[in-house]
Design a protein that fits this description.
The structure holds 2 protein chains of 2 kinds. Chain A is mostly helical. Chain A is 74% helix and 1% strand. In chain A, a hairpin with a 6-residue loop joins β1 and β2. In chain A, α4 packs parallel to α16, α6 packs parallel to α21 and α7 packs across α20. Chain A is globular. Chain A starts with a helix and ends with a helix. By secondary structure, chain B is mainly alpha-helical. Chain B folds into 2 domains: 74 residues; 79 residues, no CATH class. Chain B is built from 7 helices and 2 strands; from the N terminus they run βαααβαααα. Chain B is flat, with a radius of gyration of 24 Å. The N terminus of chain B is likely disordered. Classes of the chains: A mainly alpha, B mainly alpha. At the A-B interface, α7, α8, α18, α19 and α20 of A face α1, α2, α4, α5 and α6 of B.
Chain lengths: 508, 167
């Protein structure tokens, strides 16, 4: 446990340079901006910025991009509370209590509580990442393609089981992601496939282009669909005294903080993702907390529950991402794509070969979350003003930003049309409640899942039972299959108990 | 996908159409996979092995979706996916973007950006003339300085930039 301390100190020495602090602040600022603006979420923001980091040193690049991710999580909370618009899927649960609080004239308290909880969640997440990383890499060293395949299956299974909404639509999303990932060069045999004679397709479909389309154009389309009404925040003024008072009131929620942090950690390390974490934490809080009955009416504890879990999951997700190359959120998936483009292979080898990168990143997470809390609080008036700017101007500007981003990916006009096509698909997917995050995950992991599967099959000479050949793989694959079966099993169970559940959950 | 079929587009129609679309996509993937062997080669599964099964997965899941949609037809048919006004809004957003991309390919990104912003901000949203000019002129200029000189990632240029000697 303490063996990591010197490494972490080296990381601090590397991460805490004036240049990197400046990048952190820039990243957090841009992150809050994309978190606040509709049509530019964390996955899309990180994607748009990524091509510009290719020339940077990887440590600085990852600091910039992860800071942007953290910033976007905070920005999402701001809009949830002040405008009742969740800037990110993971801040939907924040609107339940945050907005009623703001409407009741407690906006400052709500924002401060949200940011402090986020900061706490993030801190717990980073501490756990720090402590567990050596253990996780040792664990990961035991992994052969067989175990990797089972872990990937677990990631997809948990999306099917926990993402909410229709499980079968999640399966379609995963399938589409796999299919798009398969286009282009086959990594095992080196032959071209699924190109249908189009030379444009031989490069494969870029993940970045898909994300810009699905999250950028698709989401804009959805925002534009309503005739642009002006968005008015509840308030944009924060009084310093109230901020301090709310901050000092935080220890009162220590049970909720710890409970939510644990849930967040669990969902972040096992591939459940921040969105699932917030809903689970909120649900658990409502059921087991004394304040649970007041959840949804503007109770600070509800806010604490979702925000803490959100950030704890987001930070803890860095552990499986670095140690196994397993992202648990769409943004982590994009970051992972970036690692590969920088020529870094995630996994245990990364810890051994590039300790500067891994520990620089972990150390930067400590610092950037402090930067986040401060910047999120101080920039509330600024971003409330940004949101009040007429969307008829910001909307077209975001379109331009998306196209510029798509061009910088590969300097290719086909990519521009692809962004449009994926925008259309993204629009229909979101409107019809197909989850997009599993698709992005499947695109990132597609090739590696396939390789792992094919290598396992080569090892076993075609026997599927190889996945049960050792206790570790056997356990993981069994849990994964249970996850896939989970929606079906619960449906059967409900049928058996003849309990009539309202279908309202699915309709949200 | 059924954009302007009637006064209001029903949820049922779009849901069913999208299931059919994903189903068709699965079929295309299977077709593509069959071109390469989908079975067992000399060293293990062939390149088409995995995509073929993914295609089947997509088709099966899409059909389950479609059946589910058909079962809930009554309820979904009364659900409105897009009101006529919303359809207009979406079309008014999408068509200029299509034109923008077309213009980008011909004229380059900077000029197309200026024209697009002039149109959307000035003509569609009817902002004041100086606001429009500010946005439409400053945006490409800022992009130009940022990308050509700061990030050193040149964006697509067209005949007008060439006229001024920028390539």
């Amino acid at each position: 446990m303490l063996e990591n301390l010197p490494l972490l100190m080296d990381g601090f020495a590397l991460a805490v340079s004036p240049y990197n602090i400046m990048l952190m602040m820039l990243g957090v600022f841009l992150g809050i901006l994309v978190g606040v603006l509709p049509g530019l979420g964390a996955p899309n923001g990180v994607t748009l910025l990524m091509p510009l980091t290719f020339g940077m040193n990887p440590v600085s690049a990852i600091i910039l991009l992860t800071s942007m991710y953290w910033g976007a999580l905070y920005g999402g909370s701001t809009t949830s509370i002040l405008f009742n618009i969740p800037g990110e899927p993971s801040s939907v649960a924040t609107t339940f209590d945050g907005h009623p609080m703001a409407k009741a004239g407690r906006a400052t308290e709500a924002l401060t509580t949200a940011f402090m909880s986020s900061g706490f969640g993030a801190l717990v997440g980073v501490v756990v990442v720090t402590i567990l990383s050596s253990w996780a890499t040792r664990f990961a060293l035991k992994f052969s393609p067989i175990e990797y395949f089972t872990v990937f299956m677990l990631a997809f299974g948990s999306f099917v089981a926990f993402s909410g909404g229709s499980p079968i639509k999640t399966v379609v999303s995963i399938g589409l992601g796999f299919a798009w990932a398969g286009i282009g060069m086959d990594t095992v045999s080196g032959s071209m496939r699924l190109t249908y004679g189009f030379t444009e397709l031989s490069r494969g479909i870029s993940l970045l282009v898909v994300v810009i389309g699905l999250y950028g154009i698709g989401e804009l389309c959805q925002t534009m669909q309503e005739s642009a009404g002006t968005m008015e925040p509840v308030t944009s003024k924060l009084s310093a005294r109230e901020v301090l008072r709310a901050a000092f009131a935080m220890p009162r929620y220590w049970i909720a903080l710890l409970r939510s942090a644990c849930i967040g950690l669990w969902m972040g390390i096992t591939p459940g993702g921040p969105t699932a974490a917030t809903f689970m934490s909120y649900g658990v809080g409502r059921r087991f907390s004394k304040a649970g009955a007041r959840f949804g009416t503007g109770d600070p504890e509800g806010l604490v529950s979702s925000e803490t879990a959100d950030q704890a999951a987001g930070s803890a997700a860095m552990l499986p991402m670095l140690a196994l190359g397993l992202p648990s959120s769409a943004t982590a998936a994009v970051l992972l794509g970036g690692l590969m483009i920088w020529g870094l292979t995630p996994g245990p080898a990364l810890f051994a070969e590039r300790p500067d990168f891994v520990w620089g990143l972990i150390a930067s997470m400590y610092v950037s979350n402090v930067v986040c809390v401060i910047m999120a609080l101080t920039t509330v008036p600024l971003f409330a003003a940004v949101l009040r700017a007429p969307f008829t101007i910001t909307g077209p500007l975001i379109v331009i930003v998306c196209l510029v981003g798509a061009w910088t990916v590969g300097s290719n006009t086909t990519d521009l049309w692809m962004v449009l096509a994926f925008g259309a698909i993204g629009y229909f997917m979101t409107r019809l409640h197909y989850p997009v995050a599993p698709l992005v995950l499947a695109m990132v992991l597609g090739d590696r899942t396939e390789d792992a599967f094919r290598q396992s099959m080569i090892l076993s000479k075609g026997s599927i039972w190889v996945f049960w050949s050792n206790p570790l793989a056997g356990t993981i694959i069994t849990v994964a299959l249970l996850c896939f079966a989970f929606p079906g099993l619960t449906a059967l169970w409900r049928l058996a108990r003849r309990v009539r559940y309202p279908l309202s959950e699915e309709k949200k | 996908m059924g954009e302007k079929t009637g006064p209001a587009v029903s949820h049922f129609l779009v849901e069913a159409a999208f299931s059919l679309f994903t189903c068709l996509f699965g079929a295309v993937i299977i077709y593509g996979a069959v071109e390469f062997n989908i079975g067992w080669g000399d060293i293990g599964p062939d390149p088409g092995y995995f995509p073929f099964r993914v295609g089947i997965l997509i088709i099966v899941a899409s059909l389950v979706n479609l059946v589910g949609t058909l079962i809930r037809r009554k309820k979904l048919a009364t659900d409105i996916f897009l009101t006529p006004e919303q359809t207009r809004n979406v079309v008014a957003f999408v068509v200029p973007v299509v034109v923008l991309i077309g213009a980008t390919v011909i004229l380059g990104l900077y000029v197309a950006t200026a024209l697009y912003l002039l149109f959307t901000v000035g003509i569609v949203a009817r902002h004041r003339i100086w606001v429009t000019i500010m946005v439409a002129v400053c945006t490409p200029l800022i992009l130009f300085v940022l990308f050509e000189y700061v990030f050193l990632t040149p964006l697509l240029k067209g005949p007008i930039e060439h006229l001024f000697g920028f390539y």
